[in-house]
C-alpha cells in the first residue's frame, strides 16, 4: 500500500492546532486540607476525594468542607470544561467524586444537605444510542440539583404524575427517534391541564427546535451540557417563555 | 460584433485535463487557489420557506446555513471550502440584502480563518430578474437592478456569478417541440448576445471591487433540457437532444470568459469541461452529490476535470446527522478528499478513469462530458469561430457525430431516430449567421414572450 | 462456554481484501450475490413523525420510501440494491406490522424484477426492545417479542439483522467516565454472552424460513463512543478511546457469525472490516453518504472492503431533487458505480488506496479501519481466543500499540495521555476471564440498571 | 484511457430493455380525407394538418372535421403517450397542429368553437428552470380547454381578480422555489373570501404535497401531465376536497 507523503490537500488536523494547553487547577483555598480536597476533586479521583474529605472532617465542619472545598472544586472543573481544557469524562468523574464527598459530609451532619432545586428527567422511549439523559443527570447532579431520574420507556402519565408530586423547577426529555418524540407535546399538554407551567427542555437526535417550540412549555436543548445553566434559569424563576426566548431562536 | 471569439484550445490534449488543476488558477481573498492542485468542496445552501420575509430573518437563515458548513469543515478536518449563496429574488430586488448577507458571510469566513486557519471563500450568485416575458433585457428597471446587486455584493464576496436567462423564452418553446433549430437560436444567438452585453459590465464591477468574475451557466436552457430528459423511464425530452443542447451551451457560456470572466465557472454548468478545455480556467461541477437538487445520469463523470465540487442547492433543514449544509459539506468534502488523495498518491489518472467509466456509456449526456469528447467538441467550437451561431452548430454536429460513431454508446430506437433527425435538420441550416437569424426571426415571431429588440435584433 | 471461538484468519493477508468481494458471498432471493464481485448500494429510509400511528399509515410510508428507492434505480440504471428497514419500536412490538411491511416490500421488489429485471433484496432489522434497565434480557415478554418479530419478518425478508443491546447499561456508565475496563466488560463479556444466547435462535429462524441471518453490530456501544468522540472540536470522549472500543467491538460482534450468521453484516458495524478479515463473510459499511445520520471521521476508508454501501438512516421527506430515499439511493448508487468501474478496469487497488489515504491519518478511528490495521487486530483476536474477554482485550491492546507505533498518526497531548492511560489499565487487568468477571461484578454492582442475572452471571 | 469491457456491474440500460415498440396510429375514420387529418395530426405535422383540413373542408362540415378528425386524432395521441410510445414533444407538436386545424375550421364556421371549460394558469414568481406552466398550458389546450395563461411573476391580486371575472373550473400554479410558494395560500385565501371554491392545483420543484394540502382549495400536482385529467374532474363538478382525496394522499 502506498501512502501519500503530503496530506495537506486531504485533511487539516485542527484538533492539534487548536489544542488548549493543559492547566493546573487554580488554588482555591488557603487551607491545606481543603485545597487537597479541591485538587483530588479536580483530578476526578473519587477515592482520593473520600480520603481527603475524611481528613478535612477531622478539623472542619462538614458544611465548611462542602462550601469551601467541594463546591469551589466543582466550580473549577466547570471552568476548565468551559475553557476547553477538560473533556466530558473529567467532569463526570469529578461529579462522581463530589457526590461521594458530599455523602461523607452528610453522614457526619446526620442529615442530607439541601439541594438547590429538583429537576425531573426522562426518556419517553429509549434508543440504543440514547446516552443524553445519562449525561444530563450527571451534570445536574454535579451542579447541586436533586435529580429525579425516571429512566427510559416512561409513559406520559408517569411523567405528569411525578411532576405533580415533586414540583420540579424543570423537566427534561430526550429522544433520538422522530417516532418517539410525539410523547413530548402530550406530556406538555398534561402539565398545562394541571396548571403546571414547568419549563420542559427537550433534546436529542431527531428532536428539532422547530418541533419543540411548536408546543407550549417546550424549550429546545441543543446539547446536554446546557442542562445545568438552564436549570439555574428555571430555579431563578424564569418562565418557559423567557427561557425559550433566551435559549432558542 | 466586436467580441473576439476563442480560436485555440488551452489544453493541447484531453489527457492533460485533470480534476483539481487548471492552467490558470484563481485565488480567493484568503489566498486559497482554485484549480491550484486540489479539489475544493463548494456548498450551496438554500433558505427555507418564510425566511425571505425580511432581511433580518434571511440574515439569520444564512448565518446558520453558512456557519454550519464552516463548522463542519473544522469538525472533519477539511482544509478549504467555497460557500455559494444563490440569491433568492428578494436578495437581488433589494441589493442591500444581498450585500448584508455577503458581508455577514465574509465575516464568518474571517472568523474561521483567524480561529482555525480554515481557507474559505464566498460566491454570490445574483438572481437574473430579467424575465424576457415581462422586461426588456437591457433597458428596464430589472436590468439596472441586477447590475446594482452585483456592485453591492462584489464589495464582500470572493466570486460573483449569474445564471443569465437570455433566450429562455425561445428555448422553453423549442425544447418541448423537439426543435433543435430553436434551441440553437435560443442558446447561441440570443443567449450569446445577451451575455455579450451583460458580462463586460460584470467583469468591470469585479475588477473595481477586487473580486473574481466567476462565470455563467446555461442553467436556463441546457439544464431544463437535461431535467426534462430525466432518467431512463422519462418520456419528456430525448436524451440525445439534451446532449446536443449541452454541446451548444458550451458555445454560449464561453462568452462570459471571452468577456473577461476568469472562473470558477458555476457548478450547474455541465458544459464546463468543454469550456475548461478551451480556456484553461478553473470550473465548478456537480454530480452525484447534487442529487438533493435533481437527478442526473452523469453522477461521477462530471468530477473528472472539476476544480470545485458542489451540490447545486439544498434547502436548509435538520437531518438526524445535523443540518443539510453540514451534511452536504461532509459528503462533498469526502468526495474532494478522495480526489485529493489520488493526486497525492499519483493515482489521479486511475481515479479519473473510474469516474469516466461509471457514466461514459450510461447515457448520451455522460458520454459527451468525458474529457476526450468534451475536448473534441471544444475543438469544433474554436475551429468554427466565425460566429456564435457557427460554433454552436459545429459543436452540436460534432457532438452528434461522436455519439453515433461509438458503437458502445447505445440508444433506444426512438433516441437514435430523433438524433438522426436533429443532425439532418442542423446540416440543412444556412451557413451564415445573418441568414439563420433572419430565418429564426420569422419562424418564432409568434412566440409570445419573444422581443427581438431585447437582443438588438 | 460451548461456543467455538474463531481461531484463524479467512484472509491470509490484508492485501487480499477488497470492496465488492467476500470469500463467502451470499445470495438474496432474486439470485443477486452480495460479496460476489460488485458493491451494491443499501438504502435505509426512516419513517416520518406520525407515520407510526397505525399499520396503515406505516405501510403507506414504507411503500413510498422503498418504492422511491427502487424507482430511482430504474431512472439511473443501477443494477441492484438492498433496502433496509430498521424497525421503529412499533414494528417489533407488533410483529404483524413488521411482517406486513416485509411482505409489501417483497412484493414491490418482485414487481420491479418482473418489469425491469432490477435485482433487489430486503433487510429487516428488528428493534431490540430488551432495555437492560426495564427487562430481563432472556426471560421477559420483550425477549419473546423480538424472537416473534424475527419469525414474522423472516418469511418475506431476504436478510434479518439486529443491533443487540447486551452490556449497554454498563457501557453507558463507563464511556463517559473514561473507563476502558468498563467498556471491555460491557462489550466483550456482557455483549458477547447476550449474543451467544440470542444468535443461535436467529440463525435457526433464518434457516427455517430460507432467509439470510445477516449479522449484528455494536451500535449500542462502540457507535455511542464514536458519536460522542465526534469531530475535531468535540470534547466529550477521546477519539483514542472510541478507537479502542471499536477494536473490542470486533470481538463482540464476531459472535453472531460464530453462531452461524453469514453476513452481510450491518452498515453501522464499523468493526466489520476486522470481522471480514477473520470470517471472509460479506459486510455492509457506511461512510460519507451516511452523513445524514451522523458525522464521521472515516468517510472514505470504510468503503475499502465493503460489499454493501449504505447510508445508516435518512428520514423520509422531500428535497428539491425528490424524496430522501431517492436522493440517497442516487448518491450511494454512484459511489458503488465508481467502485464497480474500478473493479472492471482493474484499478480497484488504486481506488482503495485513495479511500485509505483519505482517512488513515485523519483520526485514530480512520486509522484502525484501514485493512492492514483491521487485519492485525483480527489476528490478535484469533490468537487470543481463550475467551471473549481475552480476545477483546488483545484486540484493544494491539489496536493501541499500532496507533502508537505509527508516527504519522498524530494525537493531541490529551489524546495521547489518555491512550497511554488506557493501555496501562488494560495491561494491568487479570489474565483469566473468570477473575475479570469477578472484579467487574464487584466494581459495577452499584450501576443502577445492571442485572448480572440477565447474562447468567 | 482504459474502458471496461464488462459494464454490467456499473449500469443497466433499462431504457433499452423496456422500450415500447413503435406503433402506427390506429385507423380512426373510414373517411379517407378525415383519416388523413388524423394521420397528419398523430405525426405532429402542423403544415400537413392544415393542408389536409383544408382538403377535408371542401367536402365536410367544419364540426365534422373537428369531431371526427381532429378530436379523435388527438385522443389517439393521448393513448400513445399513456402507453409509453410517445414522448412529450410529440404530444405538444400534435397539440400545436390540432390548434392550427381548429383555427381553420373556426374560420369556416365564422365563429370560435366552444371550449370545454376555462382553466387559469400562472407562476407566482418565475425561476429559470420553470417550464412546468408551458407544458401545462399546451396539454390543456390539446385537451380542448380554454386556457387563460397569466404567465410568470403574477401578483396574488391579479390571480384572484382573473378568477373572479373568468370563473374557471380550475386554477393552476407552478413554483420551483420554496421562497415563492408562499403566494399559494394567500391566493387560496383570496378566492375563499370571494366564495370562489375553485380547485387550485399547485406543483413544481419545491412544492410538496404536505405544503399544498395544508391550505384550503390546494391540490398537489405531481406532474404536468396530470393537468388535463384534473381539469376534466373539475369540469365534471368534483369539489376540491374530492379532487384532493383522489389525487393526493
Ligand atoms: Zn443552476
Ligand atoms: Zn445505529
Ligand atoms: Zn446501527
TrEMBL record, chains A, D:
Domain B12-binding N-terminal: 24-117
Ranges where the B12-binding domain occurs: 116-245
Record-linked Gene3D superfamilies: Cobalamin-binding domain, Methionine synthase domain
Keyword vocabulary terms for this entry: Cobalt, Metal-binding, Methyltransferase, Transferase
One GO molecular-function entry: methanol-5-hydroxybenzimidazolylcobamide Co-methyltransferase activity
GO BP: homocysteine metabolic process; methylation; tetrahydrofolate metabolic process
GO cellular component, one term: cytosol
EC numbers, comma separated: 2.1.1.90
UniProt cross-references to Pfam families, sorted A to Z: B12-binding, B12-binding_2
Keyword set includes Nucleotide-binding: no
Family (UniProt): Belongs to the methylamine corrinoid protein family.
Name the record gives this protein: Methanol:cobalamin methyltransferase, subunit C
Lineage: Archaea, Methanobacteriati, Methanobacteriota, Stenosarchaea group, Methanomicrobia
Gene encoding the protein: mtaC
Automatic annotation (TrEMBL), chains B, C:
Protein name: Methanol:cobalamin methyltransferase, subunit B
Record-level Gene Ontology MF annotations: methanol-5-hydroxybenzimidazolylcobamide Co-methyltransferase activity
GO biological process, any: methylation
Keyword annotations of the record: Methyltransferase, Transferase
This enzyme's EC code(s): 2.1.1.90
Keyword Methyltransferase listed: yes
Enzyme class of the recorded protein, top EC level: transferase
Recorded superkingdom: Archaea
Source species taxonomy: Archaea, Methanobacteriati, Methanobacteriota, Stenosarchaea group, Methanomicrobia
Pfam family, one: MtaB
Species the sequence originates in: Methanocella arvoryzae (strain DSM 22066 / NBRC 105507 / MRE50)
Amino acid at each position: 500500500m502506498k501512502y501519500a507523503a503530503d496530506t495537506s490537500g486531504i485533511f487539516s488536523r485542527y484538533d492539534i492546532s487548536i489544542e488548549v494547553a493543559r492547566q493546573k487547577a487554580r488554588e482555591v483555598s488557603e487551607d491545606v486540607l481543603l485545597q487537597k480536597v479541591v485538587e483530588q476533586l479536580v483530578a476526578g479521583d473519587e477515592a482520593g476525594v473520600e480520603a481527603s474529605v475524611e481528613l478535612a472532617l477531622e478539623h472542619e465542619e462538614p458544611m465548611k468542607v462542602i462550601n469551601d472545598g467541594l463546591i469551589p472544586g466543582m466550580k473549577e472543573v466547570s471552568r476548565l470544561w468551559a475553557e476547553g481544557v477538560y473533556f466530558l469524562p473529567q467532569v463526570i468523574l469529578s461529579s462522581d467524586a463530589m457526590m461521594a464527598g458530599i455523602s461523607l459530609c452528610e453522614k457526619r451532619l446526620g442529615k442530607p444537605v439541601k439541594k438547590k432545586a429538583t429537576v425531573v428527567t426522562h426518556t419517553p422511549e429509549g434508543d440504543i444510542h440514547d446516552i443524553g439523559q445519562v449525561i444530563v443527570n450527571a451534570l445536574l447532579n454535579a451542579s447541586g440539583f436533586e435529580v429525579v431520574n425516571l429512566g427510559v420507556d416512561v409513559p406520559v402519565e408517569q411523567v405528569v404524575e411525578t411532576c405533580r408530586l415533586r414540583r420540579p423547577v424543570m423537566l427534561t426529555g430526550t429522544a433520538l427517534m422522530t417516532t418517539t418524540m410525539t410523547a413530548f407535546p402530550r406530556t406538555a399538554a398534561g402539565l398545562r391541564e394541571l396548571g403546571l407551567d414547568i419549563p420542559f427542555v427537550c433534546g436529542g437526535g431527531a428532536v428539532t427546535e422547530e418541533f419543540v417550540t411548536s408546543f407550549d412549555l417546550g424549550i429546545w436543548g441543543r446539547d446536554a451540557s446546557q442542562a445545568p445553566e438552564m436549570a439555574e434559569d428555571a430555579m431563578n424563576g424564569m418562565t418557559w417563555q423567557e427561557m425559550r426566548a433566551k435559549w432558542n431562536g | 460584433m466586436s467580441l473576439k471569439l476563442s480560436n485555440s484550445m488551452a489544453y493541447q490534449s484531453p489527457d492533460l485535463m485533470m480534476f483539481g488543476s487548471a492552467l490558470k488558477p484563481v485565488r480567493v481573498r484568503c489566498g486559497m487557489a482554485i484549480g491550484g492542485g486540489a479539489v475544493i468542496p463548494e456548498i450551496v445552501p438554500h433558505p427555507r420557506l418564510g425566511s425571505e420575509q425580511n432581511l433580518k430573518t434571511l440574515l439569520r437563515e444564512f448565518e446558520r446555513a453558512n456557519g454550519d458548513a464552516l463548522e463542519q469543515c473544522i469538525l472533519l478536518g477539511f482544509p478549504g471550502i467555497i460557500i455559494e449563496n444563490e440569491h433568492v429574488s428578494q436578495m437581488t430586488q433589494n441589493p442591500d440584502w444581498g450585500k448584508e448577507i455577503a458581508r455577514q458571510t465574509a465575516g464568518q469566513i474571517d472568523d474561521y480563518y483567524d480561529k482555525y486557519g480554515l481557507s474559505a471563500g464566498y460566491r454570490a450568485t445574483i438572481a437574473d430578474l430579467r424575465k424576457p416575458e415581462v422586461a426588456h433585457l437591457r433597458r428596464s428597471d430589472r436590468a439596472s437592478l441586477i447590475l446594482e446587486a452585483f456592485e453591492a455584493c462584489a464589495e464582500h464576496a470572493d466570486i460573483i456569478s449569474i445564471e443569465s436567462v437570455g433566450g429562455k423564452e425561445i428555448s422553453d418553446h423549442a425544447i418541448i417541440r423537439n426543435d433543435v433549430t430553436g434551441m440553437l437560436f435560443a442558446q447561441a444567438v440570443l443567449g450569446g448576445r445577451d451575455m455579450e452585453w451583460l458580462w463586460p459590465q460584470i467583469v468591470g464591477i469585479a475588477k473595481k471591487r477586487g473580486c473574481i468574475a466567476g462565470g455563467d451557466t446555461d442553467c436556463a436552457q441546457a439544464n431544463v433540457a437535461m431535467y426534462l430528459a430525466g432518467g431512463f423511464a422519462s418520456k419528456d425530452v430525448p436524451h440525445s437532444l439534451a446532449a446536443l443542447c449541452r454541446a451548444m451551451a458550451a458555445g454560449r457560456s464561453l462568452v462570459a470568459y471571452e468577456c473577461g470572466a476568469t472562473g470558477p465557472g458555476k457548478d450547474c454548468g455541465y458544459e464546463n469541461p468543454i469550456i475548461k478545455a478551451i480556456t484553461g480556467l478553473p470550473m465548478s461541477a456537480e454530480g452525484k452529490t447534487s442529487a438533493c437538487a435533481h437527478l442526473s445520469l452523469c453522477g461521477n463523470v462530471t468530477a473528472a476535470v472539476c476544480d470545485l465540487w458542489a451540490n447545486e442547492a439544498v434547502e436548509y433543514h435538520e437531518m438526524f446527522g445535523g443540518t443539510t449544509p453540514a451534511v452536504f459539506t461532509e459528503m462533498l468534502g469526502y468526495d474532494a478528499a478522495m480526489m485529493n488523495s489520488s493526486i497525492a498518491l499519483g493515482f489521479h489518472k486511475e481515479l479519473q478513469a473510474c469516474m469516466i467509466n461509471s457514466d461514459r456509456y450510461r447515457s448520451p449526456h455522460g458520454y459527451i462530458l468525458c474529457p476526450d469528447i468534451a475536448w473534441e467538441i471544444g475543438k469544433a467550437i474554436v475551429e468554427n469561430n466565425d460566429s456564435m451561431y457557427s460554433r454552436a452548430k459545429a459543436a452540436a454536429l460534432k457532438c452528434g457525430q461522436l455519439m453515433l460513431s461509438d458503437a458502445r454508446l447505445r440508444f433506444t430506437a426512438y433516441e437514435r431516430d430523433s438524433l438522426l433527425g436533429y443532425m439532418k435538420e442542423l446540416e440543412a441550416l444556412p451557413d451564415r449567421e445573418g441568414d439563420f437569424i433572419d430565418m429564426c426571426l420569422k419562424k418564432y415571431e409568434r412566440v409570445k414572450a419573444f422581443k427581438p429588440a431585447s437582443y438588438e435584433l
